[in-house]
Amino acid sequence: MRCMVSINVNGRKVDVPEGTTLLQAAEGLGLRIPTLCHHPAVADSGNCRICLVEEEGTGKLVTACDTQVEDGMAVRLDTSKVLDARRVILKLIFSGHPLHCEVCESNNSCELKKLAVETGISGIELPFIQGFRPIVDANPFYLRDLSKCISCGLCVRACQQVQGVGTYEFQGAGRDVRPATSMDASVDESVCEYCGLCASLCPVGALIPKPPMHQGVEKESITTTCPYCGVGCIMELLVRDNKIIGVRAGVPGSVNAYSLCVKGRYGLDFVDHPDRLTQPLIRREGELVEATWEEALDVVASRLEAVKEESGPDAIAFLSSAKATNEENYLLQKFARAVIGTNNIDHCARLCHAPTVAGLAAAFGSGAMTNSISDITEAEVILLTGTNTTENHPVIGERVKQATLSGRTKLVVVDPRELGLSYYAVISLQQNPGTDVAWINGMAKVILDEELYDNEFVENRTEGFEEWRQSLHEYTPERVEEITGIPSRDLVRAARLYGKAKRAAIIYAMGITQHITGTDNVSSLANLALLTGNLGREGTGVNPLRGQNNVQGACDLGALPNVFTGYQKVADEQANKKFSEAWKEELPSEPGLSVVEIMRAAQEGTVRALYIMGENPMVTDPDVGHVKEALESLDLLVVQDIFLTETAALADVVFPGVCFAEKEGTYTNTERRVQRVRKAVDPPGEAKLDLEIIAELSKRLGYTMPTTAAEKIMDEIASLTPSYGGISYERLEAEGLQWPCPDDDHPGTPVLHVGSFPRGKGKFTPVEYIPPDELPDDEYPYILSTGRLLYHWHSGSMTRRSQSLAEKVDRGWVGISPKDARILKLKEGDPVRVTSRRGSLVSRGHIFPQLQPGLVFATFHFGEETANILTNPALDPKSKIPDLKVCAVKLEKVKGGEGVEAAATA
Which residues, 6+ apart, have CB-to-CB distance to 659 below 8 Å? Predict the structure, then answer.
């Protein structure tokens, strides 16, 4: 606890904690000190000198933003000496700042202009002495107009201190000092991640965001949740004339504070894209044509009813959506179970984090991230594996970088590729793909053999220890090296670092889960955390990073074939009875089919009708060639979406839904935080709320949903779901709540498993290494792994319709190691054919130094060249996730004339 000191500000005495700045002390009293270089997101520097105050007695002028208080200090904020100095400084700034206010995009928000008006400065008191500085337009996201730069340093500090990237640094001296990239190169050639924080903090017009240019000033701002990854960033949508013209971060209590990634900052213009669906479509004579809502709903209802009567309810299946709200996912799974009578409902969590739910639930009794995003900086050691965090979850990647740069946290990275975060790591290990169980077991054996484990935790809070200990006998560092390729000495170093830490956190994502051994991989990580007692405290835990904005919520709300909301099993008699009584229908108790199983059943003819809300399996599912065959085999395919996606193009009926900015609801982020989604603009044309579409269809099939109001649906969810029992829109108005939140007085749960586990004791699970389903051979000598890019998201249906993101990256690529490129005589950008046992893809080759020889990496956002034409649909038997990270392929250099193509093998 910090000591308190007494100071005097403008004659008012105040006690403040030691370390407080004069600026903070004055603001605490409600007094304003003007500044141009201060921002709460970064450390203060005193660069602009505008915040000068006068010390009583000495008459000395000091900068308030970076001067810490001392006991007995007394200052005045508005003496004539202070005001005169401030005016002189402003005149000097204007002598190097052109008066282009009428055409400057920052005109109405320019802090310099506001101060000039406040102090009576015209800006022409001193001669203009700046040399020519042209506007630099070198990227799709923001302009640099250094003629307006006042050298406040906010962009430099933001990039170095918050982003941990260091794109900008000060160059030059005296009046010529300015922020620039290393060697004064183009931003496009730098390490910039285009998060836009620099442009958002710029107090003048030196950095100008491009997407909202020439659209004026917002008339209102609406606080909502980002529609992209699982971080759950809170943002303000700036709205004018029913159009989003900008985005602003910095909402109090948000997980992201002032940060956003490039997609959240610059990638929301898809909302107004002309491709938006505005009217229902029905297939007639092979073509999708416009229809009325009445006609489209009647067609779907009658054909669903016919399939149910002819073949039973299990001939119908549903895909819900990790993009949709909690309320929409709840209503669709209720529709599947109570109206149709089937548990055949799943969503894309099956393709990303189904092993997390299975593995962590078995070990702890709960299959979710154990800790909070804010915990990351409290860890002494972070073990990060199977996650390219800076590209897939950039704001969490930012937190990891901040933790390592503070000097308090050591980072261990284990991934087949060399990642951006590898440069921040004290140990970076590259394992052979699909060998995770071996190296995790190997680390555990070292910790056991060297007695680095938490014996008290193991004895008091776990079970199954001895059996598990015996299962590790063969996993010596030497054997692990043979399997994984990780040098034994490096494995021992990593194990010691994790084992000795008082607080160690594990962070992982789909590089761990998307394997036929995905559940085993997760169980192995859970074993490691149990062994070291790294659970139930800040800065510890097992922390899966959810890929989509509401994949956690879609799982929580029962969009899975074996559970109702809150993971209450459909086969459990009491749970089934509770939901049957609440919904006034007898509900099926046999678990339904998963995503991949639904596609196989469609191809076989046992599933005849499929209803898809907001999913695009024609891009995201494995073995896309067979997915297409499955969808074309259906008697009825219904797609509810905002664009005519690759999947919607195959549908018999297409319902135009609405996007995140056009509806009310909630998302649940990766740390279990339930947060509000709010309507900012009206939907286009006749697009209808997803809740209303489901309810209208339900009514036609003889079941009336009690309400379509999102707030009331959340009340129903809370009444049936113990972990959501205390969550309501009223409580979410201020900020989100982390489940479990069992009642109205509960504050939410930032850290799980404090003192105990939901299952009683944590359970060690013996796990043996099993090789991948498909390994390289003479015909297919390379291993393909797939993943995401920073600039695109999932199937690309939204990001590829964002002008800036599409301009930055407009097509996919196949990454190849420099050694393999030399063998194949490939140069950067040359077309290359990748072939697996399931299909063939031609894309541009990208020489990727971060790859080991023999490993190939491909993007999957681009439907016309999706890597999922190649991937293996073999399933993890426990969680039924397909093996998307290990696939045997061959590579061929393509001769001139052949362009992009993707084709399934017959």
Answer: 227, 270, 271, 642, 683
Q: What predicted TM-score, i.e. pTM, was given to this entire model?
A: 0.94
Question: Which of 368, 190, 322, 199 is closest to 793 using CA atoms?
Answer: 322
The DSSP secondary-structure symbol of 730 reads H
Contact in structure between 345 and 592 (CB atoms under 8 Å): yes
**Could you give the C-alpha distances from 297 to 51, 244, 286, 701, in angstroms and in order?**
64, 31, 19, 10
Instruction: Write the pLDDT tens digit of every residue in 852-876.
Output: 999 999 988 888 888 888 998 889 8
What's the pLDDT score for residue 92? 92
Residue 896 pLDDT: 66
pLDDT of residue 187: 83
Residue type, 245: I
Q: What's the pLDDT at 568?
A: 96
For the cut 50, the answer to whether the pLDDT of residue 906 exceeds it is: no
872, β-bridge pairs? 883
d(CA 212, CA 243): 10
Q: Which two tokens stand for residue 456?
A: 């008290």
Question: Do 40 and 197 form a contact (C-beta atoms < 8 A)?
Answer: no
The amino acid sitting at 67 is: T
Q: Which amino acid is at 124?
A: I
Token representation of residue 42: 């970064």
Q: Which of 727, 869, 712, 861 is nearest to 795 (CA)?
A: 861
Between CA 545 and CA 564 the distance in angstroms is 23
DSSP string, 531-581: HHT--SSTT-SEEEPPSSTTHHHHHHTT-BTTB-GGG-BTT-HHHHHHHHH
CB 47 within 8 A of CB 179: no
Q: Categorize the per-residue pLDDT at 538 as very low, low, confident or very high, splitting at 50, 70 and 90.
A: very high
Write the pLDDT tens digit of every residue in 121-134: 888 888 888 877 88
- Summarize pLDDT for 451-498 with one digit per residue, the tens: 999 999 999 999 999 999 999 999 999 999 999 999 999 999 999 999
Q: DSSP letters of 219-254?
A: SEEEEEE-SSSTT--EEEEEEETTEEEEEE---TT-
In the chain, count H helices and then E strands: 28, 38
Tokens for 213? 């240019």
Residue in this structure with the two tokens 């800790």, named with its chain if needed: 371
Token look-up 């459909």 returns: 570
Amino acid occupying residue 158: A
Provide CB contacts within 8 A for 121, sequence distance 6+: 87, 90, 91, 94, 115
Residues 6+ apart with CB under 8 A from 445: 472, 475, 476, 477
The model's pLDDT over 289-330, given as tens digits with 9 standing for 90+, comes to 999 999 999 999 999 999 999 999 999 999 999 999 999 999
Residue 214 pLDDT class (50, 70, 90 cuts): confident
Check if the beta carbon of residue 369 is closer than 8 Å to that of residue 753: no
- Residue 682 makes CB contacts below 8 A (sequence gap 6+) with 242, 662
- Cβ–Cβ < 8 Å for 724, 749: no
**What type of residue sits at position 323?**
K
On the question of pLDDT at 175 being above 80, the answer is no
Q: For 763, how many CA atoms within 13 A lie in the half-sphere containing its CB?
A: 17
Q: Are 731 and 744 in contact (CB under 8 A)?
A: yes
Report whether 319 contacts 610 (CB < 8 A).
Answer: yes
End-to-end CA distance of the chain: 69
Which residue intervals of 150-282 are DSSP H helices? Answer: 154-157, 197-201, 262-266
Angle at 253 between CA 248 and CA 257, to 5 degrees: 45
User: Do 186 and 138 form a contact (C-beta atoms < 8 A)?
Assistant: yes
Residue that the structure tokens 């998302």 belong to:
667
Domains of the chain and CATH, by start:
4-78 (3.10.20.740), 313-352+550-725 (3.40.50.740), 366-544 (3.40.228.10), 782-904 (2.40.40.20)
756: its two tokens: 């105990």
